[in-house]
Amino acid sequence: MAGQANTNPDFFGFADLLTDAERDELAGISEYLHREVKPLAQDAWERAEFPFEVIGKFAELGIAGFQYPEYGDGQQRRPLFNGFLGIEMNKVDPSLAVASGVHTGLAMGSIHGGGDQRQRDRWIPDMVAWNKIGAFGLTEPEGGSDVAGGMRTTARREDDEWVLNGTKRWIGNGTFADLVVVWARDEADGNVKAFVVEKSVPGFSASKIEGKISLRSVQNADLSFDDVRVPESNRLQNIDSFRDTAKVLAKTRGNVAWQALGVAIRAYELAREYAVTREQFGKPIGSFQMIQDLLVKMLGNITAMFGLVTRLAQKMEAGSAGADHAALAKSFTTTKMRECVSWAREVFGGNGIVLDYEVAKFFADAEAVYSFEGSREMNTLIVGKSITGHSAFV
Q1: CB 291 within 8 A of CB 224
Q2: At what angle do helices 242-277 and 289-318 cross, to 10 degrees?
Q3: What is the pTM assigned to this prediction?
Q4: Which contiguous run of DSSP H or E holds residue 224?
Q5: Is 256 in contact with 365 (CB distance < 8 Å)?
Q6: Domains in the chain, please, with CATH?
Q7: What is the pLDDT of residues 203-250, one digit of tens each?
């Protein structure tokens, strides 16, 4: 016997913590994203191409300035609002959400937090307007989790210039970015420093990584630096060690936790809708106990994820969120997301492996979200050190 269905994946009503004005703004953004951005996403993902038309649409939304109000519309938005925005972005398309996040979070965040006022004024206004696209060059071919100790890209000071040599890998937006924040080890003191490398500078090249099965629209690149010269004015003045890199990552890991929630929610929504419309043995499969078990497990994961990221946002607003809080959020939510997309695909049976039903894309995209911004294991060790006082890193 069918009854009234509760279709809201926010089962405990965490959105009630938003103000009416915040909910109205999110509703408008969501409507715009579904109308203007979503139609570009599926075909671009299948072709592994970035839909450049989306840049103008993101610029029209003004979302790049939300975290930096002095360069945006001047309105200070709460971390909780920005988190819910992340949900909406990722429900539409995780690839385009990542491309936006690399630009606004990693690249702009590095310049905003690591640059001096002159550098912020030089680059951020154009980045807010999407006139210049940013990328973030940290990971290396031989240094993923061990990039802190194993960074091989070097920087050598020569008068008022720095000479960069090395390679980077998995750099989102890397094939078309106007500027890349490049992290390199100073040959003189051994400390990690950050440099803004603008495209077309001699000795810099980027090549697209082909054959990805996840976040296919994101243009990840291999970057090469062969005696690339940048002026001292392009060295981010407030970054002097890898600890400063970690500060940037602590903020963006919180964003990834919300991203994982958005991916899980959309997978759940697709599975629930399919379960109540797909019929087998003369009735909707949603009336079968084993299908309901999968849906309820997904909803339980989503609710737990909501609780964690909401509290993280509150601590960020209060200024009491630490790197260990962000690490636990990223580790936990991406693990639960991975379970959710797997169960969602299972609800679809064979239909879950074709793009016609959309869930396949979220199932694949979850693998990259699970892996970047620190693997589950590395984030676990950050939290482990926090709670025991002992470092278990190699």
Answers
A1: no
A2: 150
A3: 0.93
A4: strand 221-231
A5: no
A6: 14-128 (1.10.540.10), 134-234 (2.40.110.10), 242-388 (1.20.140.10)
A7: 999 999 999 999 999 999 999 999 999 999 999 999 988 788 777 877
